[in-house]
Each structure stands twice: as structure tokens, then as C-alpha cells.
Amino acid sequence: MKKIYLFIAALIASNTFYGQYFTEVTPSPFKDMFDGNSVFTDVDNDGDLDIFIVGLASTEDVVLYRNDGNGNYTEDTGNSFEGVRLADVAVADVNGNGYMDLLISGRNTSNNPITKLYLNDGTGQYTLDNSVSFDGVQYGTVDFADFNGDGAPDVLITGDNGNNINGIAKIYFNDGSGSFTEQTGTPLIGVDYSAVIILDVNGDNHLDIIISGDKGNPDYTTNLYINDGTGQFTLQNSGLLAINRGALAYADVDGDGDLDVVVSGRTTGSTKESKLFLNDGTGVFTEQTSLILTGVELASAGFSDINGDTYPDLIVSGLVSNNNRSSEMFINDGNGNFTLYTQNSIEPISQGSISFGDVDGDSDDDLLITGISTGAGTMGPYDKKITRLYKLCNLELNQPSLSPISAICSLDEPQAPTATDNCSGGNTTIIATTTTTFPITDTTISEIIWSYDNGNGLFGSQTQAISWQDIDTSTTISQ
């Protein structure tokens, strides 16, 4: 009798890879600025992200840029803010009316440190709130967070208040109406040249605080303060690197449910270091020595999912040495193992900021940077101040899952799959190519690897399985 054998050499779901990268928005609608920070927020409740940028442009400045919904920005000239440098900025709804209010700090044009609160009327028009009084700071930070669990955003201020002391770190409780009272008797150690992150380090659903900076003489520190849920804090040994003139950022990099921390800045020995510390779930941190980051000071750092795999990737920027700056991008595999992305197009900066937000409503985080970059500019032959918006774009596979191809004995070249490039100023179709030679007659070859290249540094690939069918026509003779 005739026997027919069906051999499946490979019958697996196609694998896909999405290449993504940042493309700079040109021409830039923003003032070039440094010595400050930036924040995304919706100032007029129209559903898109507007931008506040604070720092030094041609003079001390606070600028609001409004978004048209597509990531196109226009400077708002209808507000009057007191300009600052050596500055920070934060937003929150301080009085419960549903509108995002504005808090700024820094050195004003009279060389005095200030901290000012501006109230939003809901349309993005702001009025200075003269009823509140915060310590003015420079070389510092301002942050909103609900420290005592009453649902209202409280205020944390750190930095140099100009009184020839070593710096301050103060909490002001909000009564819910936007009236603030300083919390006294806290264990917070005052610092300047500070960096702050507010996060739940031990999983008790209370917001803890990590503060780095110089407490004097110099004496650099990175301190962890554990919140009991009522806004009362206890200093806890954390194992984090003590830094100054630096940056802090956090994310769950290894998927274990707790928040890990990147620390970058100048150490007491005047070396520059950048390190990732893994959290054991209780707020005790251990350095991950397998990740080698360039040591920088005057640093900025941030986590965001850059390549679309849902894992937090990392960007760290800062000053490496005189006139030598760095902006490094690292891709996370989901287990906290990072790989340097060598085709990074982000301009190296120091004395600036990194902020992520979805500016164009495409469900991925775009990037805004400010700071000093290396190159001829208004600051001299080696330095230039910049503000850059980079939109995250990608190759969208038109067939996310490629069906296996059936073949008997040989396989001629099939029709190539395609992807849509939304990075090159329009939706351009990219036809995949392969290095496979056709026809394929070697039945041990089980897949075709298709590659995409938009010619501008963006790559992607797909794997398509081959299902070989081998027919045995031998017969069996019965006697």
C-alpha cells in the first residue's frame, strides 16, 4: 500500500520585533533654556498635554506652551509669571476645583530665591496666590504629594533658601482648600543642589521620600525617609549612593513589584557616578553591578517604555568632564538587564531636565529635554543652551503575525510583508527584505527572517516559519 508521511519542520507563530526611536521636532517652537526643569500637564482640560518650562533663556523665565492636540506647541503670552533660574516646577490641583495649579522655585531676576504658587482658572490662565508663603529656594526642588493621606496634595521643598545655611527640606500640609501649614519637627535633613523622588519603597501604600544633595562643608547624602501614612517620617538606612548635583529616578525594572532607583551625580570624592539599585521590597537597596552607566554630574534621568515592550527603559544625561556631555539610552529586557542603545539620537546635555509625556495622543511617551549641550552657541564656543522635543515613533507591522508557508521539496520567494513607517513625515510603506536565497531546497531551513529599514536609523524584523511537507511514495508489497 502507499504510505504518505507529513513532516512539519517548523510550525510556530511568527516572531515580531518593533524598532522604535525618537525623532526631533523641527523647527523647535521652544525657547532654548537651561538651569531649570519642565513638566507636562493639561492646563485647559482639553485632553492634551501642555508644557511648562522654567530656567534661564535670555533671562530668567517661566514659559507655558499650549498643545493643539497633535503635539504642535505655541507659546502662551497671556500669562505673567515671575521668571526663575536654578529652578524647579511642579503641578497639582491644590484646591480641589479640578484644575492644575503651578508651583515654581528658583532665583529671580533680583538674585533672590523664591517659591511661588499660581492658581489656574480652568482655561490655563494663572493668578499668583499671595495667601500662601513658602520658603524661597534655589538649587533645589519643589514637589506635590499627598503625604498624610487626606486626599490633598502637600508640598515638599528642598534647596538653598539664601540664608547662608546648609539648605532646607520642608513639608507643608494642605488643608484641601489650598491653604498650607509647615510641618515642624520632621527628620528631613536640609540640602542644596538637591534631587528628590517620592515613591512607596516598601509596599505599604504610603509615599516615602528619597532626597540627595549637599548638607554642607561639603557633605553629600542620599537619604530615605519612611512615611507612616500620616505624614510622619523616619530616616532609614537605604544603601543608596550619596551624591550632589545629581538626579534620581525610579521604576520597577525587574518586574518583582517593588520600585528600584537610579542615582547619578557627584560623590564626596568628586568622582562622577551613575548606578542602578535594586529594591528588596522593604526599601533596602543593592547595587546592580552588571549595568555600567557613564558617571555624570549636573544630571538628569528618567524611565519610560521606549521600545514598546512594556518594560521601563532608561535615559541618563549629564556632564562627564569639561565640555563633554552624555545622553545614554538603555533598553530593559524586563528582568532589569539593560543594553546600551547605540543608535540613540538624543542630544547630550547637562544642567537641564528630562520629561516624558504623550504629546500627540498615540499612546507612547515622547521626550522633552532642556539644558546645556556641547557646541557653538550663545553661551560661548563650547556650550549652547537647548530645548528639544523628540517624538517617539515606530514601524507598525501591517501583518503582526505571519502565517507559516507550506512547501514541498522547494520554496520560491514569497510575497514580502510590509510595515508602515510613521517616523519620516508621513505614513510610508516599507517593504521587507531578506538575506535568504530562493528557491529554498534545503528542507532543514525552517524560517525566513524579514528585515525592515526606513533608511533613517529605524529597523525592525519578523520571522516567518516554513512548513515542509515531504511525501513518501514508497509501497509495501504483501505476500
Automatic annotation (TrEMBL):
<dbReference type="Pfam" id="PF13517">
    <property type="entry name" value="FG-GAP_3"/>
</dbReference>
<dbReference type="InterPro" id="IPR028994">
    <property type="entry name" value="Integrin_alpha_N"/>
</dbReference>
<protein>
    <recommendedName>
        <fullName>VCBS repeat-containing protein</fullName>
    </recommendedName>
</protein>
<dbReference type="InterPro" id="IPR013517">
    <property type="entry name" value="FG-GAP"/>
</dbReference>
<keyword id="KW-0732">Signal</keyword>
